[in-house]
Amino acid sequence: MDNVDLLSILGLVIFGLVFGVLTARSSNKREKLRGGAVARFFHFSACALMAALTPAVLVMAVFMHPEWVTIGGISIAPIVQMLGIAVALAALAVLLLIPYALLEQPARAAWEQQQIDQGWTEKDARTSGL
């Protein structure tokens, strides 16, 4: 691995972190996260991976120039390597969303249960000013 490869990977990590924060923040604005800090971590990690997916493939194609690889007598073209990395990043993001969903779903269900409209209560009548 030479300096260009290391700088490319470092750039992708920074890109993923920066745009992962922006993506997670945008997602949180649309729909509030209620699962706690651990759920936020999994959500952010998945956002960072998805944000870095396309740039990772482009950086590999432009800067890293993957070579033909032979594994078990089968030659693997560079495009297959790039697609493999893209699928691996997407799969890892989906795997990170599974614990997020397991943490978020009960918290969201409890919040929705609290939000059920209880109708016009005596407290509402007293504070309405009518």
- List SSEs in N-to-C order: HHEEHH
Shape: elongated
Number of strands: 2
Task: Give the domain tally.
Answer: 1
How would you portray this structure in words?
There is one protein chain. By secondary structure, the chain is mostly helical. The protein contains 4 helices and 2 strands, in the order ααββαα. The termini are far apart. The mean pLDDT is 87.
Kindly list the characteristics that best describe this protein.
130 residues, mainly alpha
Topology, please?
Blueprint: H1 3-30, H2 37-64, E1 69-71, E2 74-76, H3 78-114, H4 122-127
Antiparallel strand pairs: 1-2
Helix pairs in contact: 1-2, 2-3
Question: Summarize this, please?
Answer:
This protein has helices spanning 3-30, 37-64, 78-114, 122-127; strands at 69-71, 74-76. The chain is mostly helical and 130 residues long. The chain has one domain (3-108).
